[in-house]
Design brief:
Layout lengths: L1 H26 L5 H24 L7 H25 L6 H25 L2
This protein binds protoporphyrin IX containing FE (2 copies).
C-alpha cells in the first residue's frame, strides 16, 4: 500500500537524518547541516506527510501518477542525500548529483500537487 510505503521510508530517513545530527553534535563539525536538515525535512517530514495524505485520501493512490511520484521522490531523496553528503564532505564534484536530484524532487512535488488537487476537488 502506497501510504504505508511512504510512512515506512520516512522513518528510515529520520533515523539516517538524526544519526547525522548526533554525529555532527559529537564531532563538533557542523559542515553537514544542510544535508542533515534536508534528509530530515524532505525525507522524514515530507515523506511522512505524503503517507498521511494518502491515508486520509485512499482514492488518491489510484492510477499511475501516484506510483511515479513515489519512485521519483524517493530516488530524488537518495540522490540529494548522497549528493549533499559528498559535496559538504569536501567533494564538490558531487554537486551536480544534488542539483539534478533537487530538480527531480521539484518535478515530483509538481506531481504531488496534481494528486492533491485531484483528490480535493
Ligand atoms: C537526534 C536528533 C537531532 C540531532 C542530534 C540534531 C542535531 C543538529 C545539529 C548539530 C545541527 C547543526 C546546528 C548548527 O550548526 O547551527 C542541526 C541543524 C538542523 N537540524 Fe537537527 N538534529 C536532530 C534532529 C532534527 C530533526 C528531526 C529535524 C527536522 C525534522 C532537524 C532539523 C534541523 C535543521 C532544519 C537544522 C538547520 C538549522 C539552521 O539552519 O539553523 N533536526 N541539527
Ligand atoms: C528540492 C527541494 C529543496 C532545495 C533545492 C532546497 C535548497 C536549499 C538551500 C540551497 C538552502 C541553503 C543552504 C545553506 O545555506 O547552506 C536551504 C536551506 C534550508 N531549507 Fe531547503 N531546499 C529544498 C527543500 C526544502 C524543504 C521541503 C524544506 C522544509 C520542509 C526545507 C527547509 C530548509 C531549511 C529549514 C533550511 C535552513 C537550514 C540550513 O541551513 O541548511 N528545504 N535549502
Amino acid at each position: 500500500m502506497l501510504a504505508n510505503r511512504f510512512v515506512r521510508l520516512s522513518v528510515i530517513y529520520a533515523l539516517i537524518g538524526m544519526s547525522l545530527g548526533i554525529a555532527m553534535a559529537i564531532s563538533g563539525n557542523h559542515d553537514e547541516t544542510p544535508t542533515h536538515a534536508h534528509i530530515n525535512l524532505l525525507g522524514y517530514v515530507s515523506m511522512m506527510l505524503y503517507g498521511l495524505f494518502h491515508k486520509a485520501h485512499p482514492k488518491a493512490a489510484e492510477g499511475k501518477l501516484p506510483a511515479v511520484h513515489f519512485w521519483l521522490s524517493n530516488i530524488s531523496m537518495v540522490g540529494i542525500g548522497i549528493g549533499l553528503f559528498l559535496t559538504f564532505g569536501g567533494m564538490p564534484e558531487a554537486e551536480p548529483l544534488a542539483a539534478v536530484s533537487a530538480l527531480a524532487m521539484l518535478a515530483s512535488m509538481a506531481m504531488f500537487a496534481v494528486i492533491v488537487f485531484r483528490a480535493t476537488k
